[in-house]
Amino acid sequence: MGQVVYDVSVSLDGFTTGPNDGPGQGLGEGGERLHEWLFDLASWHERHGRSAGSQSPDSEMLEEAFEAAGAVVMGRRMFDLAEEPWGDDPPFRTPCFVVTHRAHDRIEKAGGTSFTFVTDGVESAVAQAKEAAGGKGVSVAGGANVAQQGLRAGLVDEIHLHVVPLLLGDGVPLFGPDTAGIELEKTRVADSTGVTHMWLRVVR
Amino acid sequence: MGQVVYDVSVSLDGFTTGPNDGPGQGLGEGGERLHEWLFDLASWHERHGRSAGSQSPDSEMLEEAFEAAGAVVMGRRMFDLAEEPWGDDPPFRTPCFVVTHRAHDRIEKAGGTSFTFVTDGVESAVAQAKEAAGGKGVSVAGGANVAQQGLRAGLVDEIHLHVVPLLLGDGVPLFGPDTAGIELEKTRVADSTGVTHMWLRVVR
Fold first, then answer.
1. pTM of the entire predicted model
2. How far apart are CA B163 and CA B153, in angstroms?
3. Which of A50, A68, B30, B56 is deepest in the core (most CB within 10 A)?
4. Which of A8, A11, A12 has the most B C-beta neighbours within 10 Å, making it the best mutation to test the interface with B?
């Protein structure tokens, strides 16, 4: 069975978005800088339908993460803010399960991406994602709220952090009071230009 | 002229102490785990007057940090909580400058450590420490409040973080809203058992 992995870029002061995120500014003020390390990677461009960017260890790592995920879990707010920028051919190319209080018909996009709206909680969304993943892993894409719910419920096996040396000061915090005491084991660290990757295993 | 370096252990969720720090529990609940990586290092034991512990890259790094510091700046709360555990021969072996609102006579300890109480702000404390350091560097020991004041005032040249994969949930945050926008350049990362060291330069 594949692992449930929360993969996220985070500022050095612990935010996954900058302040005042909302429509047209899904990553908050300054939050796009959290993802700058991705923008030159060949595997990032490939997932966005372009042939461009650099081959590098970061690009290979990202490609591995994409390949490992047989399904994706995300929150409704992330979906609402990102659906438009993702366009008709989102980068996931797998079934995605959106945790929400508001029911919505399943949406089919090009390239193998679909969005199924799950109204009975993150546990159900992860279970449905595992089923859909066909033995591959499940990627928890965010936002941090859904990821924290998954962590608290013991549903997440691994966290892959991409720490960017940026001080945002405010925004959506990666962790919170409710994630206190969750035991993590650092399994690998890889430093790169403008980002430090940390792999952590959730100890049960 | 030596650099002004803020050297600090921090949890993965960004706290320099656990919750409810106070007398008898200077590091807060669970906060002592932030410093466990130090406890087996030969250079740590040496500074505490003992011949014990392991020689290792971490031990050499700590020894270099001790050697580089010709003076230390700290906050009054840190001093108040730690004076007793430090004992008569504190590990600094240099002049220390304590930022405080409450005047106090200078205190001389064994081994070259002294505490001078500075009532006219962190800028004055750093200036006095630079003067006393005789060309060596100044170590900002904490707490985070004084370090943030120093960062905001542009007094800190480097941050050496020791990131421990621990989720404390609450406590004294390393960074805050007021440190937003300070530009940092990551200059080096070294991974070790139970801790990841990150060196950052403050860009001016």
1. 0.95
2. 24
3. B30
4. A12
